[in-house]
Amino acid sequence: MFQGSITAxxxxxxxxxxxxxxxxxxxxxQIEEGTNALVPCGTTGESPTLTHDEHMKVTEIxxxxxxxxxxxxxxxxxxSTEEAIMLTEHARKAGxxxxxxxxxxxxxxxxxxxxxxxxxxxxxxELPVIIYNIPGRSIVDMSVGTMARLAELPNIVGVKxxxxxxxxxxxxxxxxxxxxxxxxxxxxxxxPFLAAGGQGCISVTSNIAPRLCAEMHAAWQxxxxxxxxxxxxxxxxxxxxxFCETSPGPxxxxxxxxxxxxxxxxxxxxxxxxxxxxxxxxxxxxxxxMN
Length: 291
Hints:
Elements: E1 4-8, E2 13-14, E3 17-18, H1 20-32, E4 37-39, H2 52-66, E5 73-75, H3 81-94, E6 98-102, H4 111-124, E7 129-133, H5 135-138, H6 144-151, E8 156-161, H7 168-176, E9 181-184, H8 190-195, E10 200-203, H9 210-221, H10 225-241, H11 249-257, H12 274-287
Parallel strand pairs: 1-4, 1-10, 5-6, 6-7, 7-8, 8-9, 9-10
Antiparallel strand pairs: 2-3
């Protein structure tokens, strides 16, 4: 069961290329700060603009640095089922602990199409798969009924839920059971998601506040609600600021301010504007991550 603070890793760039050395150092820092698991090549990692070779290299680097110290859940989703199978098989061979597979975007499949997409991946690759349900980016919303059908398959082990529907984890747990791993995909609602039956959060904020995020989840697991809420309240302005523009623009700018990497993103994303920069900087100061 994956749990706790799981970082949806940014992919550092330098002059248009993946900055491998900086990426390695960033992952080492994440592990040292207490992050419980790592997700390369997700939305925050700008996977849509990585070439296949870059995608696979980024996954391999993450697995190589982690060295089994923490689990690696490799982003392998695509709106092409064959491409998703190919990337999932690569993740398996590279040594990933699981795959994070986003619901197909743009195609707008039916619920049966969603089921068949994930079943094909389940049947083709012997690797645990976490469904990534994010209607805001993919348009489609996987129903609890479809998820329950998929949960009967041996390799479908959980969901990253980015619906912001706080009834969803409770309904999902009642329908599928406690063994189905539920991970929040929204930092701002991570604590109520845990209260409804979730096990952790695949986080954007933990890119720059890994220790605080890990401590919040550790406090929750110990039943220390007071500490959990105190950290959540401290982080909330940061959660909000990091989505003042399309992610990962703000989180990369925050990482730049903390000296972790450049704020370079790939088109069609672009650097955030001056107003947003001030918003991010103010949130970092208020959270105590920067003077």
